């Protein structure tokens, strides 16, 4: 019975794929230049979907519930860039700077930093310092981070000035840590210390140079705003998990509870965005590679190539993280069985919080990239979220390789699908594809093992 | 009865012919052929993972067959449909008690007593006959006082009894009980035994899965022992339990 | 210990212990919610006069029909559908297209034929069409559950919105359809607000009656068991797919009816009334009022309308933001409900 059904499905798959290939082949033979154009478009749209699907898959395959905040994160990323750049671009036509928003994000950041310090630094220093002193210091640090975020959001014109010291210090510390890790495998003892000291000086110089470079380069503000938006989206994602979902999961294991709660969050955040920015579409400023290139009769923007690159890099980074680090092992263990991972001593709350952070950063990045390509509006988050879902269903839900494949497949099918239809039917095409997949191949192209 | 299937015997109420079921690479039931005699108590035993629950799920149509044939009450079926169970006069309970949790005890029983067809069901209201039936069943499993409680708020033993009561409400001829005694206090065990004996006296067929060999020996007439999805032995209880294969399997492990 | 002393000590404990007081209040939350919302409604009416009640009453009735109908699917059958706005739109557009009296041929924009049917001829067509679409969609959707069901129902809402927006030969796309007449009984047109309110309330009464008839029948009982354990109830001889399809279709037809009323009331229909956000809003209203109770849906719709109207009087909130601000409040309410009261205010089913 099952065997018969599977073979029927396979038959259907083969027939449909052949039909699609024949259609595309025929179209290509009719107008090869246009076909190249559609393929380019499919790739660049697919890259955004792939990015969404990767992050979504990471979160979904860890906690196994649909988190609709993910869509809000995409919108948050795009609107974050708009918020930080609105005063200087387009003649300040749509300039927005809202004290409520600034305070809100400052408070959330302070809270998240406080939690992060409490989870990471506090246990290590508890034995060395008095608890009150330690708590006070950490509290001050967290408050400082909050104030800093508020300052960044309040004075976005000076983004390069405000961020350059932090960036420089970050690069210096990061480089030192990286070199320390690298040397550790080679030498030990005093030699190691000496090497680290020397390289520390070099890293500090590198950090100072980078900071100075950014300081003197106002054009870097756009890309700094990307980073700030992604961070903010990630921070909010983490705050939602730690502040809300943890308690909900303690009360009920029903995935629908979490889904409805995150639906409420998405609803509230979308409406709030509409209040602050109005609900009409807005443009994002031009980013790198906005000059169209002509290639075999088709035009393509450098930015689209960059998007594809970001999607691939994001995929490789996550693959590395999941396969080769202890963090990745913990994530996979939690995805397999959360209770057991808790028993074997994995701090599940911290790991899942980090997963929510990373997932939201990916969503925000996808939102930013798609926003630069088209335009942004408050509703975009929900649609991007749904596309990410569809891509991950098409690719095979819960499988990272499937997610990136599904994203590109979805992008291609959408673009070739609207060749004969008008462009506005592409959402319909992707949902029809979703229903086809769910009905006949619910496990997707690359099923999770 | 179908022509051409000579093995089908009026003496047996359920027969399976080389049925199998696999989950991925795991073959839970392998070309299993068993026969369950009409009337009386038949028990199915075997170690964990030997396919007992899968067998019951296959017989009641909860899982689709991968291959083989099931003959229930003279009808041979390649596909067992869950919603046709009442046609064959078959009902069951589940190993992991599956009640309608956020529904009252009363409605858990009433739903089994009411109309199956769509449009008549829309018009049907509770009638006195159903009310008496439901009351009788709830009283016989000792849950009459709890009739307005939600099923999720009952204790484990009460849930188990309610599930048996729900099966009784079907007025079936064939009852499949999946581990009815597991996790029950002794007085509850006595109660379930009593219910099963009453059913036997009415001339029904009862099939139950149990690990407890004392209960099996005490209650059942017929015994089927499975091992890794295949039949180890079947026959009268005392006979089966004295066979060397069974003694080896049970004492050896 | 004697009973009366026991009683006294427990009362004393209750008075002195805020936590227990809170628990006692929570156990009576249903009562408080009912009283509060009704008092709120009455207070509003006293403050703003009866005219206010008439203008808000129609909005309430249309939302109430929608939420009662969706509760049949979400609360009683346990299928969390976020696509209900599609059926609402089908009903609205059918009535709009069939009854519109505008001569589109003379306009420069998209032209569609003018039918000029009477309202009472068009409404049954709209309801039936919503039912037929629901039947077709339901056959496909029946195999999905839980979160996948939510995903595909999102899909339905988006597809129907795109059809309303992009099938310009039928719906005039973003231009919308105008000049939709009010219903006419004999020679008497329900043109006044009060007359129309009475008509809509009668329709709401009919819907409540039908829903009550359904949920108190054996059919309704089967729906609740499908919600709890579909596989288990199938074992007892029910073809669950037929039941799910039936309730889904009935519910969609009710939504279609609400759509027809809506079109006739506003006299103008465009795709912006049928966006996905509206559908999410509807789900929020159903959950807020209470799952698996008809009264809860009425209460939820009333609370929502009062919330919206109440926010108009907030001094610090500009009027243009009220439409969005109610979504913010409702979204936050939804989160709080999921945290503390997953069955909604007066619900009978916890998600």
Description:
The complex is a heterotrimer of chains A (449), B (253) and C (351). Chain A has 449 residues and is mostly helical. Chain A is 78% helix and 2% strand. In chain A, strand 1 and strand 2 (298-301) form a beta hairpin. The two termini of chain A are 23 Å apart. Chain B contains ten helices and eleven strands. The radius of gyration of chain B is 19 Å and the shape is globular. The N and C termini of chain B lie far apart (41 Å). Chain C has a single domain, classed as ABC transporter involved in vitamin B12 uptake, BtuC, CATH 1.10.3470. In chain C, helix 6 packs antiparallel against helix 12 (240-266). Chain C starts with a helix and ends in an 11-residue tail after the last helix. Mean pLDDT of chain C is 88; it is low at 1-9. The chains are: A mainly alpha (449), B alpha/beta (253), C mainly alpha (351). At the A-C interface, helix 9, helix 10, helix 15 and helix 17 of A face helix 7, helix 13 and helix 15 of C.
Topology:
The complex is a heterotrimer of chains A (449), B (253) and C (351).
Chain A: H1 2-30, H2 32-63, H3 69-85, H4 99-120, H5 122-125, H6 131-154, H7 159-184, H8 189-215, H9 221-251, H10 255-277, E1 292-295, E2 298-301, H11 302-324, H12 326-336, H13 338-343, H14 348-373, H15 380-395, H16 400-417, H17 426-440
Chain B: E1 12-23, E2 26-32, E3 35-37, E4 40-45, H1 52-59, E5 67-72, E6 75-77, H2 85-88, E7 90-92, H3 105-113, H4 118-123, H5 128-140, H6 156-169, E8 174-177, H7 186-201, E9 205-209, H8 213-219, E10 222-227, E11 230-236, H9 237-241, H10 244-252
Parallel strand pairs in B: 4-9, 4-10, 7-8, 8-9
Antiparallel strand pairs in B: 1-2, 1-3, 1-5, 5-6, 10-11
Helix pairs in contact in B: 3-5, 3-6, 5-6
Chain C: H1 3-16, H2 18-27, H3 29-48, H4 50-76, H5 84-99, H6 119-141, H7 146-166, H8 168-171, E1 184-185, E2 188-189, H9 193-215, H10 218-228, H11 230-235, H12 240-266, H13 276-289, H14 294-311, H15 322-340
Antiparallel strand pairs in C: 1-2
Helix pairs in contact in C: 1-2, 3-4, 3-14, 4-9, 4-12, 4-13, 4-14, 5-6, 5-7, 5-12, 6-12, 10-12, 13-14, 13-15, 14-15
């Amino acid at each position: 019975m099952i065997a018969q059904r599977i073979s029927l499905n396979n038959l259907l798959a083969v027939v449909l794929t052949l039909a699609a290939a024949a259609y595309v082949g025929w179209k290509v033979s009719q107008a090869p230049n246009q076909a190249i154009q559609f393929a380019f478009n499919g790739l660049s749209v697919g890259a955004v979907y792939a990015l969404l699907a990767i992050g979504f898959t990471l979160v979904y395959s860890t906690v196994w519930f649909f988190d609709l905040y993910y869509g809000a994160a995409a919108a948050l990323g795009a609107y974050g860039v708009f918020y930080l750049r609105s005063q200087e671009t387009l003649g300040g036509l749509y300039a927005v700077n809202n004290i409520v928003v600034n305070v809100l994000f400052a408070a959330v950041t302070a809270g998240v930093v406080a939690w992060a310090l409490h989870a990471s630094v506090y246990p290590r220093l508890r034995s060395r310092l008095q608890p009150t002193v330690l708590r006070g210091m950490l509290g001050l640090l967290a408050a400082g981070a909050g104030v800093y975020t508020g300052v960044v959001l309040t004075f976005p014109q000076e983004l390069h000035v405000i961020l350059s010291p932090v960036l420089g210090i970050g690069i210096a510390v990061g480089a030192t840590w990286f070199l320390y890790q690298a040397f550790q495998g080679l030498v030990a003892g005093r030699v190691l210390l000496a090497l680290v000291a020397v390289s520390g000086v070099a890293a500090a110089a590198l950090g100072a140079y980078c900071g100075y470079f950014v300081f003197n380069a106002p054009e870097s503000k756009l890309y700094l705003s990307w980073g700030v938006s992604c961070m903010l989206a990630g921070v909010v994602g983490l705050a939602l998990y730690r502040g809300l979902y943890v308690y909900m999961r303690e009360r009920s294991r029903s995935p629908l509870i979490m889904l409805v709660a995150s639906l409420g969050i998405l609803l509230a955040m979308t409406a709030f965005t509409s209040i602050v920015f109005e609900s009409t579409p807005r443009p994002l400023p031009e980013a790198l590679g906005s000059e169209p290139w002509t290639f075999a009769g088709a035009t393509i923007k450098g930015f689209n190539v960059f998007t594809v690159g970001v999607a691939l890099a994001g995929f490789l980074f996550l693959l590395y993280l999941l396969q080769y680090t202890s963090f990745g092992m913990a994530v996979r263990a939690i995805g397999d069985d959360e209770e057991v991972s808790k028993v074997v001593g994995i701090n599940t709350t911290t790991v899942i919080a980090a997963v929510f952070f990373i997932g939201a950063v990916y969503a925000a990045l996808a939102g930013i990239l798609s926003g630069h390509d088209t335009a942004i509006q408050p509703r975009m988050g929900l649609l991007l979220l749904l596309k990410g879902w569809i891509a991950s269903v098409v690719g095979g839900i819960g499988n990272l390789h499937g997610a990136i494949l599904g994203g590109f497949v979805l992008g291609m099918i959408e673009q070739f699908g609207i060749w004969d239809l008008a462009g506005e039917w592409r959402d319909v095409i992707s949902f029809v594809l979703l229903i086809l997949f769910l009905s006949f191949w619910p496990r997707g192209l690359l099923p999770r093992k | 009865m179908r022509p051409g299937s000579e093995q089908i015997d009026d003496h047996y109420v359920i027969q399976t012919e080389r049925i199998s079921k696999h989950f991925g690479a795991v073959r839970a039931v392998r070309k299993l052929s068993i026969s369950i005699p009409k009337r009386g108590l038949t028990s199915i035993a075997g170690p964990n993972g030997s396919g007992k629950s899968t067998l019951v799920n296959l017989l009641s149509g909860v899982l689709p067959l991968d291959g083989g044939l099931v003959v229930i009450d003279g009808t041979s079926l390649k596909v067992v449909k869950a919603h046709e169970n009442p046609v064959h006069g078959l009902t069951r309970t589940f190993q992991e008690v599956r009640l309608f949790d956020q529904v009252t005890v009363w409605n858990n029983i009433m739903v089994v007593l009411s109309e199956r067809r769509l449009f008549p069901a829309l018009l049907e209201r509770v009638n006195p006959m159903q009310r008496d039936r439901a009351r009788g069943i709830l009283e016989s499993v000792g849950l009459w006082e709890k009739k307005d409680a939600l099923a999720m708020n009952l204790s484990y033993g009460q849930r188990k009894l309610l599930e048996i009561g729900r099966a009784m409400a079907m007025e079936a001829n064939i009852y499949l009980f999946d581990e009815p005694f597991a996790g029950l206090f002794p007085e509850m065990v006595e109660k379930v035994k009593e219910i099963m004996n009453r059913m036997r006296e009415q001339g029904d067929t009862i099939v139950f899965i149990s690990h407890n060999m004392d209960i099996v020996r005490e209650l059942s007439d017929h015994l089927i022992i499975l091992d890794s999805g295949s039949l180890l032995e079947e026959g009268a209880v005392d006979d089966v339990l004295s066979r060397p294969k069974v003694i080896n399997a049970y004492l050896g492990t | 210990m004697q009973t009366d002393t026991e009683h006294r000590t427990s009362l004393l404990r209750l008075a002195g212990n805020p936590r227990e007081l809170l628990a006692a209040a929570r156990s009576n939350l249903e009562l408080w919610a009912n009283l509060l919302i009704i008092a709120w409604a009455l207070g509003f009416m006293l403050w703003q006069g009866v005219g206010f009640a008439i203008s808000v009453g129609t909005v309430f009735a249309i939302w109430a029909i929608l939420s009662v109908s969706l509760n049949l699917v979400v609360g009683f059958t346990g299928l969390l559908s976020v696509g209900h706005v599609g059926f609402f739109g089908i009903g609205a557009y059918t009535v709009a297209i069939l009854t519109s009296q505008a001569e589109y041929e003379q306009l420069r924009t998209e032209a569609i034929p003018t039918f000029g049917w009477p309202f009472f001829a068009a409404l049954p067509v709209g309801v039936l069409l919503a039912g037929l679409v629901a039947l077709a969609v339901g056959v496909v959707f029946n195999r999905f559950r839980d979160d996948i069901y939510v995903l595909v129902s999102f899909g339905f809402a988006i597809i129907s919105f795109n059809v309303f927006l992009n099938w310009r030969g039928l719906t005039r796309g973003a231009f919308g359809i105008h000049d939709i007449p009010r219903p006419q009984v004999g020679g008497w047109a329900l043109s006044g607000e009060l007359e129309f309110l009475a008509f809509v309330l009668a329709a709401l009464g009919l819907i409540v009656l039908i829903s009550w008839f359904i949920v108190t029948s054996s059919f309704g009982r089967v729906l609740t068991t499908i919600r709890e354990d579909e596989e288990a109830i199938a074992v007892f001889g029910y073809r669950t797919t037929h039941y799910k399809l039936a309730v889904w279709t009935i519910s969609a037809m009710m939504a279609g009816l609400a759509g027809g009323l809506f079109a006739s009331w506003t006299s103008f229909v465009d795709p912006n009334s049928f966006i996905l956000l509206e559908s999410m809003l509807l789900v929020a209203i159903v959950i807020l009022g209470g799952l698996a109770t008809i009264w809860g849906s009425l209460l939820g719709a009333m609370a929502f309308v009062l919330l919206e109207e109440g926010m108009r009087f907030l001094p610090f909130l500009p009027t243009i933001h009220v439409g969005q601000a109610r979504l913010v409040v409702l979204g936050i309410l939804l989160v709080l409900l999921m945290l503390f009261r997953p069955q909604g205010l007066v619900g009978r089913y916890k998600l």
